[in-house]
Amino acid sequence: MRVSVVGAGLGGLALAQGLRGAGIEADVFERDPGIVARFQGYRLVLDPTGFQAVRDCLPTRWHPLLDEIVMDASAGQLVLDPRLNEIGRLGGGRTGIVVDRQVLRHLLLTGLTVHTDAALTGYEVLAGGGVRARFARREPATADLLVGADGVTSAVRGVLSPRTVPTDTGVRFVIGRTPLTDEFAGLSRAYGSKIAGDGVSLLLGAMRFRTPPKQAAEQLAPDVTLPDIGDYVRWAMILPPNGSLGNLSAQDAVLSRMEGWHPELRALIEQADPDNSTLLSIRVVEPGERWAPGPVTLLGDAIHATSPTGGNGANTALRDADLLRRRLIEAEAGRQDLFDAVGDYEREMFAYGAQAVRSSLEKLPAFAPGVKPS
Ligand SMILES: Cc1cc2nc3c(=O)[nH]c(=O)nc-3n(C[C@H](O)[C@H](O)[C@H](O)COP(=O)(O)OP(=O)(O)OC[C@H]3O[C@@H](n4cnc5c(N)ncnc54)[C@H](O)[C@@H]3O)c2cc1C
């Protein structure tokens, strides 16, 4: 069996790793001109299911490295005012395993065949079986199965399920990161908590590595090269609905909404890495329309994009990757027909994927003042 995976995000790479480990040929096609072409390094919290899924997709010899580059989430779960006084508590704990997306992505990329500058533009299902994918700047590729792991704007979904389209929640947020130095020791209570300002929320999360990732790879898995990054604080300011930055940079726009805030909070934003500060929109994709199982399927944000405030998008994408991997191994072994295997995956994925989107939307109003509950 040959599988074409479109999109080198966490879900697509985890699937390709899992297939490679089972001896199934998988090529990854990525739209970006290079693997590190843009900022991809925010901190993620994985739940036990998501973490186990990615672990199961990776070769066992890398498990000690994986365990070394993550940390347990210890969330404050408080609501603080802009002077860092406690004014409430966040409902529902958000504990789990913290991982840097860029570091995890590098681990997942190791040993894979990834074709960059390969934006999918369409595909044809072939009469004799299989599917041919077309790309903007490269030759078409033929495979038994095409997996669209190409994120919220998925081009694969555009052909497979054109009526499934993203919904813009209107919520915008600025995300960035700042090296974690002793200067910010006083902020530790705020990590995992929400700072409620006038119409905005600021969320902070610390990323502390047990061992710096590059060093950990050198010691535990010399065939893996991980980025040379140190501890940092990830911050995200959620703006009022349809908020815009005006003419300001992302960083200045955040500071302009922090008049009178605690000086350490302001310093945190002032010292952020400007290249890693960016404005993002919260768009969701709700899986609804079903299609007959065939040689094309979807995974991750491409079919169930959640609001990041749900903290479950990567978890769900990794769960998909592991589930699809298991089904395809059954098909490869001749124990199941390929399309039946894909159909079984889709049935299960649609159910938990829809639930993940709903749950993320329910949590959005707690972080985005002015947004009505869905
Ligand atoms: C700030 C932030 C914080 C988050 N925090 C968490 C968290 O704590 N926990 C959690 O579980 N989730 C979190 N999420 C969500 C999580 O990051 C995503 O749900 C997850 O990364 C989705 O993975 P994916 O592989 O489906 O898609 P993506 O990671 O979006 O990857 C899609 C890939 O496809 C490529 N692509 C797009 N179009 C094409 C094309 N036409 N041809 C070829 N390639 C294409 C893109 O360039 C990209 O590399 C967060 C998201 C954000 C933005």
From TrEMBL:
- Name of the protein in question: FAD-dependent monooxygenase
Claim: S-adenosyl-L-methionine is one of the keywords in the record: no
Keyword list (alphabetical) reads: FAD, Flavoprotein, Monooxygenase, Oxidoreductase
**Which InterPro entries does the protein's record reference?**
FAD-bd (IPR002938), FAD/NAD-bd_sf (IPR036188)
The residues covered by the FAD-binding domain are 289-358
Q: Does the keyword Transcription regulation apply?
A: no
An example of a GO molecular function for this protein is:
monooxygenase activity
